[in-house]
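Researcher: Last one for today. Full complex below.
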Amino acid sequence: MTAIDSRLPDPEEAEGWCLRLYVAGQNPRSLRACENLKALCETHLAGRYEIEIIDLLENPTLARGDQIVAVPTLVRKLPEPVRKIIGDLSNTEKVLVGLDLRPRG
Amino acid sequence: MSEPQRMTQPDQEAFVAGISKCPTGIRGLDEITDGGLPLGRPTLVAGAAGCGKTLIAMEFIVRGARDFDEPGVFMAFEESAGELIANVTSLGFALDTLIDQGRVAIDCVEIERSEIEETGDYDLEGLFVRLGSAIAEVGARRVALDGLDALFAAIPSEAILRGELRRLFRWLKAQGVSAVITAERGEKTLTRHGLEEYVSDCVIFLDHRVSNQVATRRLRIYKYRGSRHGTNEYPILIDEQGFSVMPISSVGLDHRVSRERVSSGIAELDEMLGGRGYYKGSSILVSGTSGAGKTSLAIALADSICRQGGRCLHWSSEESPDQILRNMASIGFDLATHLQSGRLHCHAVRPTLYGLENHLVRLHKLVGSVRPDAVILDPITSFTAIGEPLEVRIMLTRIIDFLKGAEITALFTGLTQGTDPTAWERTDEGVSSLIDTWLLLRMANVKGTRRRLIDVLKSRGMAHSHQARELLIEDSGISLIDLPSNLREPAA
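Model: Here's the assembly. Have a good evening.
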């Protein structure tokens, strides 16, 4: 383990992951983001995650709270600190880095 | 003498009938835009930091909601809601009240690029959703997007951002809202990120310059499709009542001229001026050496106006109102009564306190609130201390034009220097050609006694006297007497 790795939340020890995915409508990009997220969670966070999907077309007022501009946006609510990732999550490497599941570098 | 030179008239673009306007309610701006910003379309406001971009956008929203029954949405990309409310509250806008009443909605977009990882394809639908829900929330007819170009620092992909901006402006038009978008000015382009590419209807440019250590902000309509508009640079003033634009030289030479007369307050002087005094709404210059009686002559007019039930604005740049009151009481003018009745309004300010444009805007606003029949500027010479001669001349031209257009009689005093008689008939300010009636006061030393002499150098539109007279300033007031024949100068 390097020094950088020790600062990352340990997936084994973390209480639970709370992830929120903002999308706008049921378009191919939204569906892709949902599928990518689920696959990634099953691989890296099996049994310890919770996903909430918010469709802004149905709940437009929720966009302000999490300062959403781009969609899809994935917000890591827990563990803290809050992280934001934009895009359809098809670049798995970048998603893992963005969620602090892999060291930046 | 050369022909009077005037400021060029604002160029007028071909007027296309039918374009609807959305009044901003900002003083002066609606005048130079011929009624306001394009209704239901976006307007771009570009300028450097500190020019007043946020304020112009905020006033558009607040005045719209408050004065025109058009609710609005203010979306800020650079400031927090707390900062915004605090900033405009200091300008007398009860923004929080309008928000509570559901007439204005504010949304502050805060995104840090550092906190964003880009992991694939995306768009800015979140922004559209936020804007759309805010518009629906208050039933907005107006939208302001303040500092929209801050998105360029926040969104990693410029290609996606540009595509979405294009979509945003199309979407705004489809919503039918009148919008103001502000952006930072660029070095080679109008705005740093070329937002002008997306807004083709109306572009306003704000500028901020420092000259003689005095900062002046200016506004220019860069483009206004389908509407005539003034193309000059207009000085702007930001004070406790918000933003105002001074629509200078909007008068030109097509103002109405009056045939009515106003008494100078001195019967013998009226006599010299074709028997009936100055023309109402004309410009009068009283020039002379120090102590020759310029202020007394100016006050005589003020007193005459007030006695006849009119109102007079006295703008003094050398003496305090108290000092003028005391001095004029000693020669029989009871100005205190006029002050109490509100007929006389005294405004004393050192010229060096503000830039020329600021003085111009202040005068404009004072005239708007006092609604005087006559304005006295005593003396205009002191403005030469704060500007280049050409600038001073331009400013005085604007003042003369503005007062003429409003049919306000204007009297200026000017100091002449030295003892050279040819210099007396020159004015430092070079405005004599714009003046309708020019009186020259001078001191003459006659057999050990200093006498004040008055000449009417010119007076347009009347048969005036060419004979110099002696001006007597006594406890009882001002009068003129004929010179004894042995003192008369041979006809030139």
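The interface with chain B takes residues 22, 24-25, 29, 32-33, 36, 56-57, 60-61, 63-64, 67-74, 83-91, 94-95, 97-98 of chain A (CB under 8 Å). The helical segments of chain A are 3-6, 28-44, 62-65, 92-98.
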